[in-house]
Structures are given as C-alpha cells and as structure tokens.
Design a protein that fits this description.
The structure is a single chain. The protein is mostly helical and 102 residues long. Helix content is 48%, strand content 0%. Helix 1 packs antiparallel against helix 2.
Length: 102
C-alpha cells in the first residue's frame, strides 16, 4: 500500500550527504570516565571472584580503575582542546539558542 506523502528511497549512491555531518564527534568526557571506571571495576571483580587476587593482601588493586578513569578523562580533555571548536552554525544552533549558550 502506498501513501501519497511517501517518496521512494533512493539508492545509496544517489543520496545527498550535504545536510549530514560526518566524521569525528566530540567525546562526552563524563561518559568516557564512567565507562572506563565501570569496566575496570568489572575486571577487578572478576579477578577477586576467580581468586586470582586476594583483596586482603592486594587491596591497592581497587584503586586502579579510578586511576585509569582519571587518566582517560585527562587525555580526552587535552585532545579535545587541540581541535578547533565548531561554529554555532555548523552545530545547527541558531537564533536564541546560540545567544543563550554564549
């Protein structure tokens, strides 16, 4: 069944990418840090459960995920600062939204 408002989908080669942004995007540092911390804690938990590490003797291992997460956050912040920021028009912000965030 066809509806009058529908337009047929074009093959990939014929689609226009003019309105679509591609490439690298900004990293959300908070998400990165918490993801690294969660993964590190999961690894520490697996080591403790498998009796590879005894927390009573090697308690310092509990701090490693937080150190790794902090290092990942610092690296992300430094690398993000090296790339130029996009303009408000490139980001899709216009009018009052752009003025509110300045």
């Amino acid at each position: 069944m066809s509806y009058p408002d529908e337009t047929p989908e074009l093959p990939r080669e014929e689609r226009s990418t003019a309105g679509r942004r591609t490439g690298w995007h900004r990293v959300n540092t908070g998400h990165l840090v918490m993801g690294v911390a969660f993964t590190g804690l999961l690894i520490v938990w697996a080591l403790v459960v498998s009796d590879t590490v005894q927390v009573e003797e090697d308690g310092w291992i509990m701090g490693l995920p937080w150190l790794a997460a902090g290092a990942a956050g610092l690296i992300a912040s430094v690398l993000r600062g090296r790339r130029p920021d996009e303009t408000w028009e490139q980001a899709g912000w216009e009018g009052q939204q752009a003025r509110d965030w300045q």
